[in-house]
Amino acid sequence: MSSYAEFSIQGVHPDLSRKQIVIETNFKVDPNSVSLKTVSYYNYDTKKLETYKLRVDGKNIYIELSDYPSNDSRYYLKVAGISDALGRKLLTNYDDYIKFVNDVITKVNVISPASRETLKSRDVTIAIKATEVIDGL
């Protein structure tokens, strides 16, 4: 008994720190089907298309942004008309809002020199301790 699977988008992952959006599919994407006409990305508030480049790597489509998106701003993403490596068309178009949120913040503590100590030497070693603080935890 054979089963037939439709070509579909499994997830969309905005990444603020890398200035990109990863569109994950269930099969290898045909790179020739991916273009600025089939993948649209614009700012929800201004209704203007953002500047971006597209790249396909196996099952993933990468939207590489020219500028950092605004933290907590809403953007609109539409994916329609793409196909997989076997020519199967996307079963359901992706048409939704996305939001970039900075979830991880790095907190830096200066360990040495301590207490804003003033040093006269030019040969100073600075020691820091970096910890990640995750919002909501």
So how many helices? 0
Oligomeric status: single chain
Global shape? elongated
As a percent range, the share of helical residues equals under 10%
- Tally of strands: 9
Largest sheet: 4 strands, antiparallel
Q: Between the first and last Cα atoms, what is the distance in angstroms?
A: 48 Å
> Into which percentage range does the β-strand content fall?
35-45%
Question: Could you spell the SSE succession in H and E letters?
Answer: EEEEEEEEE
Name the poorly predicted regions.
none
Helix and strand content put the structural class at: mainly beta
The order of strands across the largest sheet is 1-2-5-4
Average predicted local confidence, pLDDT: 84
Radius of gyration: 22 Å
Please provide a written account of the structure.
This protein is mostly beta strands and 137 residues long. It has no helices and 9 strands. It has strands at 9-15, 20-25, 39-43, 52-57, 60-65, 74-79, 94-99, 104-112, 127-134. The strands form 3 sheets. It has a 4-stranded antiparallel sheet with strand order 1-2-5-4, with no helix packed on it. It starts with 8 loop residues before the first strand and ends with a strand. The model has no long low-confidence stretch (mean pLDDT 84).
